[in-house]
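User: Can you predict the 3D structure for this chain?
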Amino acid sequence: MTIKVLVIASFADSILSFRGDLLKAMQQQGKEVHIAAPDFSPEQKKALIELGITPHVYALQRTGLNPIKDAASVWSLFRLIRNLQPQQTLAYTIKPVIYGALAARLAGVKNVYSMITGLGYVFTQQNTAKQKVLHYLVSLLYKSGLACSQGVFFQNPDDRKLFVEQGLVPEHKTKLINGSGINLARFPQLNLPAVDDQHPEIHFLLIARLLKDKGVEEYAAAAALLKKQGHCAVFHLAGWIDDNPSAIAQADLDTWIANDLVKFHGRVEDVAGLIAQCHVYVLPSYREGTPRTVLEAMSCGRAIVTTDAPGCRETVNDGNNGFLVQPQSAESLSKALMRYFEQPELIAQQAAISRQYAEQRYDVNLVNQQILQFMNGES
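Assistant: Here is the predicted structure, written as C-alpha cells:
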C-alpha cells in the first residue's frame, strides 16, 4: 500500500526552497505527497503539481492568538485530514505544529510528526507581563499539540532541552537533526570578491526578515561603529518588514539607508547571487532553530559571524569558520567584524572551513535521511 503523507506549512513561499528536497525524498521512497498551506499562489500550485505533489489550502492567521480564528484553523485542517486520510502528517512552524497535530489526532491519524524550526518572539521576549502571559499560553498550546505527536524533530539541542525541561514533550519522543540541511549543488562554493590587503573594502551581508530578534538593529549599529572608525565596509541588508511584534520600524530602515549605513536590497530571490558579492555573512540573531541563510552562506564558502545563542552557535566553531559574538551587543559584533580588517587572510581561510562544515554536517540528503528514518520507525 502506498503511504500517503501530508506536510503542513504556514507559509507557501518557503515550501519549495526550504522543504522541496524533503518532499522529493519522500516521493523517492514511494510516498504519495501532499502539502497544505494557507496562501498558495497559482504559480506555486503549478510548480508543486508539476513535481507530482498535491497542494491543499487551509485557513490560518499566521500571527497573533485569536481563539475564533485559531479554532477555525483546527476545523479547516481537521476537515482536510479527514477527507484526505493520510497515514502520516509532518507539521512545521508554531501554528501548524500545534493545530496540525491536534487536527490530525482528532481525524484518527496515528503517525503524527512535528518539527520545531525555531522558537521566535514568544520565547526570546519575556520582559513584560503581556509577553509572559503569551509565553505561558503558547507553552500550554505546544504541550497539547505535542502530546498528539508521535515524534518531534528539533534543530538544535537548546530548544530540545528547553522543551523537555519545561515538560512540553518527553525526551523519548524527540529527534535532533542538523536544521533543514542545505542542497550543496544548489549553493556551490563561490569565488570570493578580491580584497586589497593594504586598503581592504570588505562586504558584509545579512539576509533576514527585518525583525529586532534577528539582530538587525545591532547590525546597523555595528555598521555605524566601523564606518565611524574609518573602515571601508559595505553592509548589505536583504529582507522585508514582516507582520510581527518584533518588526523594526520603516522609519529606522529609511534612516539607515539615508545615512549610508546599509545597502538595502529588499526581498531577494537569488540568494546565492547576493552571497557572491560578500566576503562575510553576518547573523546577529537572538535565537534560531538552525538559520537557513547561514547554511546557504556556509555552503557557498563564506566566513560566518553569528551569536553565541541557541541554534546559531552550532554553525560556528569560534575562530575556525567564523566568530561567535554576544547576543544583543553591537560592540561585540563590531569587534568581531574588525578582525577581518586586521587580518584579511581570515576571510579565505574561514570560508574554506565553512564549506567543509556544510559538506560534513548539513548536506540536505543526510538530514532528510534522518527525518525519514525516524518517521519510518527505523531510528
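Residues 129-147 form the longest helix (19 residues). The two ends are 22 Å apart (CA to CA).
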